[in-house]
Amino acid sequence: MADGPTGPVSGVRAHLTAPFEAGVVVRDLERMERFYREVLGCFEVHRSRVPASIAAAAGLGGELLVVWLQVPAGGRVKLILPQAGSAPCEPVVPLTARRGLSYLTFPVDDLGPVAAALAVGGARSLSDPVVVPARGRRISFWADPEGNVLELVDEREPGRPEA
Question: Quick one: which of 27, 149, 146, 22 has its CA closest to 86?
Fold first, then answer.
């Protein structure tokens, strides 16, 4: 429903009970877990096999293995491995050439070392230059080892000395 001038037209507004979670379907769960843990500092909080009876009823297809990774500053990334396999995700550049969820944003304290770690960890830069000054911050877009797009953002103004 569309929002009116004072809120939702229906009069009902969701009251979220936990930080936001984003699901990422992967082909190589071990590799992707390692990438998100070692490069972005996430840590596992839960792992579950979802039987086909539940996954199919929920519109997710067949049996799944799901790993919840806590993002240190809040929120979670769920890595989802379909037991029947999944197609690779190829990023479209520019990102606005496709509709729907396009990328996950990770605010970081210093983009430089994280960008270097992303490259070593198997990610590919989509930004040119790799770090782009943007209105008092710096941004950088990357494809993770399976092509899912990540944005890194820090509040370091261009020309400001590193901490």
Answer: 27
Mind giving me the DSSP string for 2-22?
-EETTEETTS------S--EE
What's the whole-model pTM score?
Answer: 0.81
Task: Place 163 in a pLDDT band, splitting at 50, 70 and 90.
Answer: very low
SS3 helix, strand, coil % of the chain, rounded to 5?
A: 20, 35, 50
Residue 1 and residue 10 in contact, taking contact as beta carbons nearer than 8 Å: yes
pLDDT, averaged across the chain: 87
Nearest residue to 112 via CA among 124, 130, 127, 125: 130
Model pLDDT for residues 35-64, shown as the tens digit of each residue: 999 999 999 999 999 999 998 888 888 999
Task: Please give the radius of gyration of the chain, using alpha carbons only, rounded to the nearest integer.
Answer: 18
Element (H, E) at 115: helix 111-120
Task: Check residue 43 and give left, alpha or beta (phi > 0: left; psi -120 to 50: alpha).
Answer: beta
